[in-house]
Each structure stands twice: as C-alpha cells, then as structure tokens.
Amino acid sequence: MEEIALALFLCLILALLSKRYSLPPIPFYIIAGIAIGKSGLSLVPADDYSRYLSSLGLIFLLFYVGLEMRPRSLRESGRTLLLSGVIDLSVNLLTGFLGAILLGFAPLESFILASAFYISSSAMSIASLVENRRLILPEAETIVWMMVFEDVLLILLISLFSARVGNPVTFIALTVAVLAVTIGIVRLARHPIKALLSRTDDLPSLFTFTAVISSSYLAKLLRIPDALVAIILGSSLAATSGAALDRLSQPFREVFLVLFFVFFGITVDFSGGFSPLVASVLCILALVSKMLSGILVGRGLHGSVPAGIGIGANTLGRGEFSIALAAVFGSAAISATVAVLVVATSLVGSFTARYSEGLKAWVGRERRGSLPGPDALPE
Amino acid sequence: MGVRCIELPGIGTKYELETEEGDRVAIIFMGSRRFQLYILEKGKSSPSAAELTAAEARRVGSLLSGAIIEAEKEAVEIAFSTLSDLRIRVHTYAIGKSLAKRSIAELQVRTKTGATVVAVSRAGKNIINPLPSFTFEDGDIVVAIGDTDQLEEFEHQILGN
Fold it and tell me: What's the burial of A152, exposed, middle or buried (CB within 10 Å: 0-12/13-18/19+)?
C-alpha cells in the first residue's frame, strides 16, 4: 500500500514539474518507475494489488478510445483519414518491422515492436496542438485524423495479437458475440442509461466505474483481452451520452493511467535481453521514419513539404498506446526497448512540436535557396 | 463567406471562415468551457491565437455582434444580426428636480417621444416596467429604451436638455 502512495506522490511532483516546463508527463512517469523499480533502487515491488490498479489505467484509456470512435466523424473525414492514415501506417510499420528484424528480433517480436514503433501518442499530439496553438493550420486537422486512424489500427492490432493466443476461431466468435451482445444491451437500455447518466447525484460515476470494471471481469471470464472488451463497451456506450461518460470517466482514467505508466516503469527489466545499442538505433529510426511519413502526408494531402514537417514534428512522440502494446503483448526485452523508445521520442517530439513553425520556415528557406523557385525567376 | 464547422475528436469543434480579404479566422470550442481564437493573416504561415475563458469569449462575441457598450454615455445598443438591421438603444438618465412629483402619464413620455421608460432605480431599489401612474422623484435613475431619434427626443422634451 505504501508503495502506491510513494509512486503516486512522486508522480504528482513530476506532473507539476512537467506542466511548469510544458513537457509531456508520460516519459517522467516511466523514468520515475524505472528509478524506484526493478531496474533501479528496487524500492517498490510490483505485487498483484498494484498490478490490478495499474491495469485499470489501461482499461479506462481504451474505454475512452472506444468512446471517441464516432462513426459519423469517421465517414465525414474519409479521404484525409484514409490517405494520411495509410501512409503513416505503411511507412512506420514497415520501417519498424524491417529495423527490428535487422537488429535481430524474432518475426513475431518484431511485429509487436513495429506496432509500438508505428503508433504515435494521441494524447501528446493533441495536447501539443492545443498548447502550441496550431489548430487553425490545415495540417492540424490531418494530424487529428491520423490519430483517429491510429486508434482504429490499435483495435485491429490488439485483436490480431490476442487472436494468436489460443484458438483464433473461438477468439473471433467470442469477440463478435461480446460485440453483438454489448451493442444489443446498450440499444435496448438506451433510455434508462441516458436517464441514469443525467442524474445529479453519485449514480452516474458509480455506473461508469461499475460498467468498466465489469467489462474487465467479463473479459477474464471469457479469456479475451480486457483491452478489447473495454473498447467495445466504450464504442457501444458512446451512443447514449458520450460526452457525459467522457467527463465521468476522466478522473478514473487520469489517476489509474499515471499508475499504469509508473508501474510499467517499475516492471521494466533491462537484464532480459535488452541492448542499449539496439534501442538507440530504433529510437533514431523512429524519429526519422515518423518525420518521413509526415512529409509524405504533407506532400500528398497539402501539396506542401513544410506542412508535412509540421505533421511529422507534432507526431514524433510515442506514448500511451506503445506502452499498452508492450505491456500486454511484449516480452521483457520488448518492454524495456519500448520504454526507452517512448521516453526518447516523446521528449524529442515535445521540442519539435514546440518549434515546428521555426522548423517549417527553415526548411522553406533551405528549399528556396537550393532550387530556384518560381519567385526567383525573372519577371 | 461560409463558415466551415468540423468536429475534431479529442479536441472539440472548430469553426472556420475566410474573410473577403483572404484572412482566416478560426474559433475552437474545447469542452470544459475553454476557447481558442485564431487569426491567420493572408500570406502568412504562422497564426496568432488567444485562449479565452467563457466570460471573455462572451465579451468578444458581444463586441463583434454590435452590442457595443459605450460606458461614458451610459447607453447600450443591441443589434440583432438575425433580424435585419434591428438596433435598439437602452439609455440611463438621472431625473432632476424639475421632474419630481410628475408621473409618466402626465409627462406623456411615449406619446411625445416614442421612447419608453422600462425601469427606475430609486435609492438602491429597482422598479421594472413602471406603470403610467408612477411618479418620479429627484435622484431617480431611469432606463429608457428606443431608437436613437426617440431617445434624443426624450432628452430634449422630457429632460429639457
């Protein structure tokens, strides 16, 4: 019990510092976890109790991802969503996979690593767009749609990795059944749920918490990942009072996610086949490939390389989803590598996002300087 | 001059419009009562932005929609953008000794000027929609409503300014 208090108190101080200097807090939670955990001072062991609490962070995060899946907005943004998403996916997943294979990981490990390598942090990208005041720029919308596409891919990747364990047919049948039953129940009980959520007493938050916790229990019972069930629950419940559920689950999500990050750091084990050299190469590769995919998206959708630099600079940071994939499916070596990847890319990414306008202007000047643009020609 | 509206998952709602001059203005409603107001000048690549609280956003909105508060004149003009060109002025005046003990009916405020007295503040108490039989006292503050001409008539004929 005192371990959790210590970890949370440390995170509170780090959160204050990261806000003070406008840095993303996730890398600091992980560093703090590493420092007090297995690979550091061994002050805080991870027991069943802390493992359960931190798993709630992941479940609430994925419940939120499901809640934000609005089929209507997916359809409306069709072309941007698909084009930017496919470029982002193919460049980064391929680079990550080939990189991991060449660095000596087994094919399946490489695929899990490549997924963590591919998926940017939605939380960081969106926070940096708001904080750095970039929302009027055309590429800001593209970034938002890219993040939505990545969320959809996350669901597919989680399903794919889960299907591998045990019998895929049983898994798919069970998942489809859970999906159908959840949607059916929510549809039938739509009005009572709405009425319940609009009450002003303590029932709405109790309902939200109970629904999410029960979904995780149901998942354990059926032996399908609770992550998947949380997403299914979120996307079904979005049809009732999505905004209210978002507001109600926010405090749970925020607190349990911090625990999830810090305990991920605590359990990171650098002695199980982790190589600092391999991790550093992957970090550099991750930064280069995300910037490259950003530039390709910028050229393809906005006809502008500087816009692409803006897209790359705002999406370099890997975060919560990479850790989620590593924590659920990765081996010790993968988890340790992803921990380093997240810390490095999110810190570099927060700086590139802050100075992306300067970066764009500089690239614009360089390009005009090297090749005679239309404005350099005589009239 | 169409306003483009788009829902941005995880952020909020973005309203965007391009002016005739080619400048772009965007307003972003982020949940939890936060607003961002952007201006991107034509030909520039870096926008300017301000983050507003709900109260500040309302203030900016009322300034832009024409309800300009001219504090020194103690008048408010309200413009309804949906009703073409409907502009209503609300003005406050202090009642002097010359009008004391005289009623609204006796002064024939509406018949003579077209303006209407809609409220009176007397010694810290407010009377909303006073009856025609209401009698003024020295030191009353009245709120009159009408268009610019009607309020000018009110100043000349009733107050005698």
Answer: middle
